[in-house]
Amino acid sequence: MGAKKWISVAKSYVGIDYVYGGGHSASGDPKAGMDCSGLGEKIAQACGLDIGWGATTTLESQGNVINRSEVQTGDMGFYGSRGSSYHVVWALDNRQFIAEPQPGQKCYIGNIDGYPADFWIRNPKIAAFVGNGTTSGSGGSGESTVTVYYFTPFYYINQESAKRWGVHETDDITSDSISTVEEMKKYADKTFSLNPEFNLTATLDPNTEIVKGDITHVSIRPADYETDLKLVGYTQYPYSSAQQPSVTYNSNPATILDFYTSQEKKISSVQRQLVDATKISRTNQNWLNNYVGGETNQ
Q1: Domain NlpC/P60 spans what residues (predicted)?
Q2: Higher pLDDT, 158 or 259
Q3: Between 20 and 30 A from 68 (CA), which of 8, 77, 210, 284?
């Protein structure tokens, strides 16, 4: 019964903002925000327990070290070395934890093995309250649905891109198939545009031949960056020697693909028109042969 109570209270805090120093008083409102240690202290308070109010290093001294395999509801997972830990998460069961991560983020439920703690401590007061706890990964009564993360959501900056172009924030990304931080970083590098899109429009001398599929090389020396731009559009005046044609080059693969797709559609359309015209010519020829043949036979 105690384990279900602990889990139910803990889950009610999912989505509450991280606030440094929050949750460290009996009168404080948890909805106003908590930090990593204050979260557990507020869960304990709501369960009628007094485990004190303090930082992670204080919580370390309030129990005994246990093995990862022994983790159950209410156990504390610490990050850093004994005596100088800097972060703590609170076990819901042997598979999941709940945590307040860092400033700018919210309380969430994560996967213990996806964000492994350096050591685990069992507080005797919490252990007595939860009994044998929940170790099966059932997460309690199952009355609420929450998002479970394999690892702590994090803010990622590709250092090479940032050095070259500065930092430009974009929307968050998620993936249900990625379970490690390093895999997520690689996914981010593939998903985000690490270099800006370049677009170049040039006006040419009259009668200059435009080469389909043309590529121009661009070098940006201050950023130590080079790239190829491909022809993605042009305007020409085949019947005027006075008007100047123009060309547009772009570095975005999607824009390049769209251009060549549109060119293929135009070619296909012209081919269909030629086929239709050929059919019409054959029909006219057949009609003419029949007509002339008919006149000749009279």
Answers
A1: 1-131
A2: 158
A3: 8
